[in-house]
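ZP: hey, is the iron/sulfur cluster complex queued? I don't see it on the tracker
AM: it wasn't, my bad. submitting now with these inputs:
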Amino acid sequence: MEWLCRKQLGFGCMRLPLLDPKDPTSFDHDQICQLFDAFLAGGGTYFDTAYTYHGYQGELEVRRALVERHPRHTFQLISKLPLRDFTDRADMERIFQEQMERCGVDFFDGYLLHNMGTNVYRRCCEHGGFDFVRQKKDEGRIGSIGMSFHDKPELLEEILERYGEGIDFLQLQINYSDWEEPSVQSRRCLELARQYEKPVVVMEPCKGGALINLPEDAAELLRREGNGSSLAAWALRFAASQEGVGVVLSGMNALEQIADNLSVFSPFRPLNQEEEALILKAGELVNANTAAACTGCGYCTHGCPKHIPIPQFLSLYNAALRNPATMSNQSVYYNNLSLATAKAGDCIGCGQCEAACPQHLPVIGYLKELSNLFDGRTFFAVRR
Ligand code: SF4
Ligand code: SF4
């Protein structure tokens, strides 16, 4: 458990580099190997993957780029039980065996109940999800049991009260933009983790990249006071400065990012009071300028019957509303993307995406607005 409590950077494998951005399984294997090697060479050891990442192929790539190329004792490998995908307890066993095979290991240093929220909690209880991970730990196949959580603090408290004894650590979404955000409530969830003495691994410290591409006023504020620190370094320092936080995950796709992110932790310098106040002010500016608080995780797209590129659409929706002067550029991008995939107006309102979204976003409404903005403006399209 010491490695969970130490303030350190973890390599999040949810957004690995791709050869074709439209195909989540088109891994840029050579680049991924370089990134993993650089992370290990720089002192990083924590790798976080999951059954569902990259169209259910992410664990296989982690095996090829990490497990088959580095001695097992040089890294910790963490994966997760998908709470939306199993049918019953026997199916959990099938998935777990498949994960071991895909990853090429016989032991996960950490294993989490993935994406816990109201929509899956009852089912998880009914099928004995908490007992299942406990059994795997007793069998010596798991080092530490975790739970990644995306819901209200009230639910977190209920779970910790009932099942807390069997949970070794929590993975929470903590960043300076979601600190007081009603749909995430980073601060309150972190307080509960402390109250129940659970070490915390942070996910989405940069909110899927949104805190790297800040509105100009927020970026200016941090640049002015940052002594040359990158925006990513600010975000990582905010997350890691919180008491009870050990590992901070980051999805990295360039060698410079790895060097910059690792430098935050060597040595780690917590934010002082003035810096914390400043960054929370920047968070307010970000929130005031963000229409759809999408992290780009892609959980919503897998089951979309119309194959709508929801995260990309929400990203350009935000960009268009943040800076109306770029509306025509966004329109070009929208038309190119929708020609290759689907239009926002193709949405049939089935709700699959909203049920899957850990941020609880009203995706259908956003797509309607996007369709009103852009569908039919094909005169902007640039066919490739
Ligand atoms: S509601 Fe629309 S966008 Fe969401 S999954 Fe259904 S068709 Fe796709
Ligand atoms: S809409 Fe929700 S599920 Fe889809 S990418 Fe954004 S945050 Fe993730």
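AM: back. The longest strand covers residues 108-116.
ZP: great, adding it to the tracker
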